[in-house]
Amino acid sequence: MADSFDAPCRTKNIPREIPPVPWYRSAPAHMLIGGFLPFSAISVELYYIFATMWGREQYTLYGILFIVFVILLSVTGCISVALTYFQLSSEDYRWWWRSIFSAG
């Protein structure tokens, strides 16, 4: 009962060629940036957690630990969205797995 599909624009069966990207837009660079920025956001808190585990002091700031965890989640989400946007703006249609690995 349905009519045939009418695309709103001309489409081709052959995927479009992706232009070469500079080194700072490559997948390893995005993974490095996506891992470094969230780690730098919580590195001071990790120092206090490791000092507690090794027995030098007692950790009593569990509320701040929760706030740092929320900051980690928000920084990771923002970095993932920004890096996916940069990839899509360079017209790379193979963004699915790279968006997961960029801040995962």
Write structural notes for this entry.
One of its GO terms (cellular component) is autophagosome membrane. Belongs to the nonaspanin (TM9SF) (TC 9.A.2) family. Plays an essential role in autophagy. It is found in: Cytoplasmic vesicle, Autophagosome membrane. Keywords: Membrane, Signal, Transmembrane, Transmembrane helix. With 104 residues, this protein is an all-alpha fold. Helix 1 runs antiparallel to helix 2. The longest helix is centred in the C-terminal third of the chain and has 28 residues. The termini are far apart. The mean pLDDT is 83.
In short:
With 104 residues, this protein is mostly helical.
Give short descriptive properties of this protein.
104 residues; 59% helix
Biggest β-sheet strands, sense, barrel:
none
Q: Which spans have pLDDT < 50 for at least 5 consecutive residues?
A: none
Q: If helices are DSSP runs of H or I spanning 4 or more residues, what is the number of helices?
A: 3
On the 0-100 scale, what is the average pLDDT?
Answer: 83
Number of distinct beta strands: 0
**Structural classification:** mainly alpha
* Beta-strand content: under 5%
Order of helices and strands: HHH
Radius of gyration, rounded? 21 Å
Helix fraction bin:
55-70%
Distance between termini? Answer: 45 Å
The coarse silhouette is elongated
